[in-house]
Design goal:
10 strands; alpha+beta
Length: 439
C-alpha cells in the first residue's frame, strides 16, 4: 500500500471514530436544536396565516388609503409617541405597520399594525402562535435554560456539528470513484440496518452543505470570539453587540418581525445597511391615490406626477415647505424600479432629508436592502446605497442572519432550509439506531 493510501486510510479511520463519538455525545442537543430550527423556519408565515384577519385587509368601501402623514399622526395619537418608522407592504391588501420606541428601555421598539383604509392602530402583540414560536426560539438558542448556561451548550454543540459534518463527508467518500453512485441513492429493499445506514449516509450527504452553512453562521450568536472570527475572515472590523456573546438585536421594524426582541445578525454598523430594518413596505403604486395633510394628491400616472413634482420643487425650496411623503416615495419607485417593500424612517421636524429603505418582494426575494436619502424640500436624491454595490464581504456580513434562517433568497431558500433542517433532525436518530444495532 502506498504512503498516500495508508495516510488516507488512517485519516478515514480517525474520521469514523470522531464522527461516531461526537455524534453520540451531542445527539440529544443537536436533535433539539435541529427540530426547533425546522419548526421556526416558517414562523412568520404561520403567524400571519393564523392572524390573517389582522394582517390581511379587505377594502370593502373601496376608498383610498390614508397618507403617510396621516398614518404618522394616527400612530402618534394612539401610542403617545411619534413612530420611528412606517412600513408599507408591497401588497395593497397587507396592513401597514409602525415601529414606536417608548421610554421603557426597549431600544428595538414596539410594532403596531396600521389599517391604512380605516385608520385604526393595534399593537402587534398577543398574536396567535406568537408565544409558541417564542418558546421554540428560546429552545433553539438556549434550550430553555438560562442564557449563560444554554448559549454555550448550544454553541459548543454547533462546533461539534461542524466537526461531524466534515468527518461525515470524509467517511462518505468511497475508496473508488466508480462507487460514488452507490452513495447517492437509498436501497429500500435492504434490512433495517441498511435502511438506517442509507437514510443517514445518503440524506446526510445531500443536506451537508446547507447544514454546514447554518452551523457556521449560527456561531455568530454563540461566542464573542466566533463572531469576531467571522468578521475577521470577511476582512471587516467587528461591531460590538449588546448582550455579550449573544449578539442580541431585534428585528425591530421588520415586516416579518412579528415579535419584538428577536435576534438579528444582519451586519449592524455597515453604513449601507444602517437605518430602518426590512419590513412590510411598499411605495406609492401606479393607479393609486394618496392624500397629504393639506389636500389630495392623485397619482394616476407616476410619470405625470413626477413632472408635477419637478415643477413644484423650486417653489417648495423657496418656501421651505416639505414635499408630501407620497411624492418622495414616487421618486424612490422610479429610482428603484422594482416591486418591493418600503420602510420610511420618520425624520425629525427639523430634518431636511428622509431615509427610505426598499426590499424586493416575491418568491425569490431575499432581505437585501436598498437605501435612499432624499431631500424633503426639493425631492433631490442625496445618496443611494444599493446592496448590489456593496463589496461581497460586506454583503455577506449584512446578511448573516438571513443566511442562517434561510431568508437570504426568500421563500425559495426557506423551503430548502426547512427540508435540510428536517433531514438534519433525523440524522441523530438514524445514527443512534446504527450504533445500537452494531453494539
Amino acid at each position: 500500500m502506498s504512503i498516500r493510501k495508508l495516510l488516507w486510510a488512517r485519516f478515514r479511520k480517525l474520521s469514523c471514530f470522531v464522527h461516531k463519538w461526537a455524534g453520540i455525545v451531542s445527539s440529544l442537543v443537536l436533535f433539539v436544536v435541529c427540530l426547533s430550527g425546522t419548526i421556526y423556519v416558517f414562523q412568520d408565515d404561520v403567524i400571519k396565516y393564523l392572524n390573517k384577519d389582522k394582517f390581511r385587509l379587505e377594502n370593502i368601501s373601496g376608498g383610498e388609503a390614508i397618507s403617510i402623514e396621516e398614518a404618522i399622526e394616527i400612530s402618534s395619537k394612539a401610542t403617545g409617541v411619534a413612530p420611528r418608522s412606517i412600513s408599507i407592504p408591497a401588497s395593497d391588501r397587507s396592513a401597514w405597520s409602525a415601529n414606536v420606541v417608548k421610554d421603557d428601555g426597549n431600544r428595538r421598539g414596539t410594532n403596531y399594525l396600521l389599517n391604512q383604509y380605516e385608520g385604526t392602530v393595534m399593537e402587534q402583540s398577543g398574536l396567535k402562535g406568537q408565544e409558541f414560536f417564542m418558546t421554540v426560539f428560546r429552545l433553539h438558542r438556549w434550550l430553555l435554560l438560562d442564557t449563560s448556561i444554554g448559549r454555550p451548550i448550544v454553541g459548543w454543540a454547533t462546533i461539534i456539528m461542524i466537526v461531524i459534518i466534515i468527518s461525515g463527508l470524509v467517511i462518505w467518500l468511497p475508496r473508488k470513484i466508480k462507487n460514488i453512485y452507490r452513495g447517492l441513492k437509498i436501497k429500500w429493499s435492504g434490512g433495517s440496518f441498511r435502511l438506517a445506514y442509507d437514510l443517514h449516509n445518503v440524506l446526510g450527504f445531500y443536506v451537508a452543505p446547507l447544514v454546514l452553512i447554518m452551523a457556521l453562521s449560527g456561531l455568530f450568536w454563540s461566542f464573542d470570539w466566533s463572531r469576531n472570527a467571522i468578521y475577521k475572515t470577511l476582512g471587516l472590523e467587528a461591531v460590538s453587540q449588546p448582550g455579550g456573546g449573544g449578539a442580541q438585536q431585534g428585528r425591530t421594524h421588520q415586516g416579518s418581525g412579528l415579535q419584538s426582541g428577536r435576534h438579528d445578525g444582519s451586519g449592524q454598523g455597515l453604513k449601507p445597511q444602517d437605518g430602518a430594518g426590512r419590513g412590510l413596505g411598499q411605495g406609492q403604486r401606479k393607479g393609486q391615490g394618496r392624500r397629504n395633510g393639506s389636500g389630495t394628491l392623485n397619482i394616476r400616472q407616476r410619470d405625470a406626477f413626477q413632472e408635477e413634482i419637478a415643477g413644484g420643487r423650486a417653489e417648495a425650496a423657496q418656501a421651505k415647505e416639505y414635499l408630501a411623503y407620497s411624492a418622495l416615495l414616487a421618486i424612490v419607485d422610479k429610482e428603484l424600479d422594482y416591486k418591493g417593500n418600503i420602510i420610511l424612517t420618520v425624520p425629525d421636524s427639523s430634518s431636511s432629508t428622509v431615509t427610505i429603505t426598499k426590499t424586493k418582494s416575491g418568491f425569490f426575494a431575499g432581505t437585501a436592502k436598498d437605501q435612499i436619502e432624499i431631500s424633503r424640500v426639493s425631492g433631490d436624491i442625496v445618496s443611494v446605497n444599493r446592496f448590489s454595490d456593496l463589496p461581497f464581504n460586506q454583503q455577506i456580513a449584512s446578511s448573516i442572519k438571513a443566511i442562517h434562517t434561510g431568508e437570504i433568497f426568500g421563500s425559495f431558500s426557506k423551503i430548502l432550509y426547512f427540508l435540510a433542517c428536517l433531514i438534519a433532525t433525523s440524522l441523530p436518530v438514524t445514527g443512534l439506531i446504527m450504533w445500537i444495532k452494531k453494539w
